[in-house]
Amino acid sequence: MSKPMKLLCWILLFCTGFFVITFTVYFFNLDMKLTAMIEPFLLKHYDRIERDRHL
Amino acid sequence: MAKEVGKDRLGDLYIDGGKVRRRREWRGVADTLYDYSRWLKIMMTLGKFVMKPRNVKAMFRYRWMANYLAVPMMVDRHTQGLRGEYLRICHEEQDLIIDDVAQLLENLFRGDRRIGNDTEFSKRVVLVDENEMTAVMMGFPNLKVLSRETPSTYVSVLLNQHAAEHYIDVAQEFGLASDVCPMPEAEAGVSIDDDAPVLGACAIQCNTTCDGSLLGNGVISRRLEKEDGIPVFQLAAPLRHREDDVQDYAAQEIKNAIAFVEKHTGHAWDWDAYFECAKRVNYATKCRQEWLEMNRTEYPQVFGSNLALYTETNYMAICGRIPAFEKADRRITELARQAYAKKKMAVKEYRHRAIIWGVQSHYYMDFLVWLLNCWGIVPLTDMLSMVSTRELKETDTPENRETAYYDMAWLTENMIMRNRTHGGYQVLLDELWEYVDMFNADMVILWEHMSCKALDGMHGLFEERARERGIPLVWVTHDLFDPRIVSRQGVRDQINSFMRTVFREEPLDPSLEVLKDEESW
């Protein structure tokens, strides 16, 4: 296989892989499912921050 | 999973008691791929945002930043059930708003004394309220007009219905009244909780729109002036804004505000920039009027949250200052014309044409999409979208410069919400029924924001007029920023029982009638 053909194959493979992975994340809402798991840890972290609370 | 509008049971996408949805919607190949491509774009915007260390630092400093984890879901909520042009219009708006808010956050953190601490940049920043027309800044192209309340409370509640609860509780722990509007109360809570970025050469606050707003501004300005050393101008726009005899005073207030900004920033007012912005404001008004004209026909195109959320942003926060919104206006108008020419409908059946009046529940902004999908009710327009249509002077002449102060004053007086909740019963009560006739509406949905005294006082008068005219009117009670008082299902139940008992109808999509989304973002 010539070099340009090889390169084209790699690009196609990369694009297909990128599409399959990102579309799966998109369709099954995996991005939101992940961030929903992160939120409680962040809220605990905010509770620990020292603040100058006053009117 | 269907391409056709209305074939899917959208309620099946919800997880009982879950924070997020089971999966995204299948809208047919073309629309799903389009939605996916816009999701990718949003992910890139978020990716670029978190690449900057100071933004990550801010993420770990400010509690309200956690709400931004929910950005893609906010878009999903507003695009629910939409196809074709309606989906594209929604993305055109939402994606631009996301870009604009990301830019706002970046600027806030760049100047913030706790995060980026770029002091030179901070000297070019003028802080404004969230609930304030930015007309007075149209002639300062080299200054950054930033609102701390927009990302910390306004957008946060759009992203996550529970976002303001912590700050409301903080404000009340410090003795602030619990019966005021929870929006300014939450904004005050952010300040009390030491959770607002500190930056800026000066700030402008506006007397909008109620007792709660004045209370919140008092708390915020005290901290800004006395602790942070940031001087604050109180722009006191007249409340009886339709009266001729208040206009001279209103224009003078604008002149005073401009002089204040010039004094504290060292930047001079630029008339060329002002008239450029005025042209863009006029163009936005022209487009909005065209959309509303379409909504008077049998084939409305830009309505519901597509109209409400975009108008709020474009009219008030942007006010002609950002050219990208002019492009979006053009694109939305093209899409709307295209759909109108094809006599397209957003759902399979339009059963009722409704005017939505009053102040809508912020934690359930996508309620307007729900009305459409669940009951086939078309929200033709809403109170907050019926703003000034006055054409501003846009050529630079000595006479027009003087008129420009009156134009800016008019815009400030006619800020969203304020133009209806103040100004007498003509603007709040009489004009509602004029719009009912104009839009050929067959029902009125009246939000009862239970902490809004300006609106609650007219409850009986609205009912009296509805009876006189024989127009079905349904009250929908909510507490604006606090879903603990009336939940999203509580909001939906009021419509559900009205539709079943008064109209004796069955829903278009029964799966949406009862949703267990109390824990949802």
Q: What is the string of SSEs of chain A from the N terminus onward? A: HH
The overall pLDDT of chain A, averaged over residues, is 95
Main sheet summary of chain B: 4 strands, parallel
Query: Strand pairing plus helix content of chain A: what structural class?
Result: mainly alpha
Low-confidence stretches of chain B: none
Globally, the shape of chain B reads globular
* Tally of individual helices of chain A: 2
State the oligomer: heterodimer
Could you explain the architecture of this structure?
Chain A has 55 residues and is an all-alpha fold. Chain A has one domain. Chain A is 80% helix and 0% strand. Chain A contains 2 helices and no strands. Chain A has helices at 3-27, 30-48. The termini of chain A are far apart. The mean pLDDT of chain A is 95. In chain B, strand 3, helix 9 (211-226) and strand 4 form a beta-alpha-beta unit. The mean pLDDT of chain B is 95. With 521 residues, chain B is an alpha/beta fold. In chain B, the strands form 2 sheets. A 4-stranded parallel beta sheet of chain B has the order 2-1-3-4, with helices on both faces. In chain B, strands 6-5-7-8 form a 4-stranded parallel beta sheet, sandwiched between helices. The longest helix of chain B has 28 residues, at 84-111. Chain B has helices at 29-51, 53-61, 71-78, 84-111, 119-122, 149-159, 165-173, 182-192, 211-226, 247-265, 271-295, 305-318, 324-341, 367-375, 398-413, 418-421, 425-438, 453-456, 459-469, 488-501; strands spanning 125-128, 144-146, 202-206, 232-235, 352-357, 377-382, 443-449, 473-478. At the A-B interface, helix 1 and helix 2 of A face helix 1, helix 2 and helix 3 of B.
